[in-house]
Amino acid sequence: LITKWNTFHELNTIDPQAKILQFCHSQGAIHVRNALAQAPQEIRNRVIVVAIAPGVVVPGDLCFQAFNYASEKDIVHYGELVNAGFWSTSEWGTSKHQEIIFETHEQLILLKAHPEATGIDHDFQSPTFREIINEHIKDYLDRNGNYRQRVKLK
Questions:
Q1: pLDDT for 118-153, tens place per residue?
Q2: Left (φ > 0), alpha (ψ -120 to 50) or beta: where does 25 sit?
Q3: What's the rounded Cα separation, in Å, for the pair 25 and 46?
Q4: In this predicted structure, what is the pLDDT of residue 78?
Q5: Averaged pLDDT, 35-55
Q6: Across the chain, where does the E strand assignment appear?
Q7: What angle, rounded to 10 degrees, do the helices at 78-86 and 96-105 form?
């Protein structure tokens, strides 16, 4: 991931507004978050993340902008909260690690499950995510990948 982002950065050094649109799903969101945490700030400032049914919420402060979407039927994203609670050493309060995860989890956008969605609605190709994925692609193409500031989609 970092190699791909570095290559994009090198190819677009004359255009600082150029961003790369990075989609990820489930465990892929963990990899994207970890790669962003290791990448230099100038590279992170180039990345727009669209996380579909993420295993962890990708924090918006780790990149130019992050969009984290899960179906209201999906339970996978709760694993991050359970894991944080399991490793907490405080019986009397919330650890700093837990507080960060709780704050980051507020960035998760829960979508109403599509009537044709199956199971826990965790699949990348679920009809629940089709419209929002298309919106991000259309927005990116309409802007020709150039973003001066963060955007807000529907």
A1: 999 999 999 999 999 999 999 999 999 999 888 877
A2: beta
A3: 19
A4: 65
A5: 97
A6: 20-26, 47-54, 65-71, 108-111
A7: 170
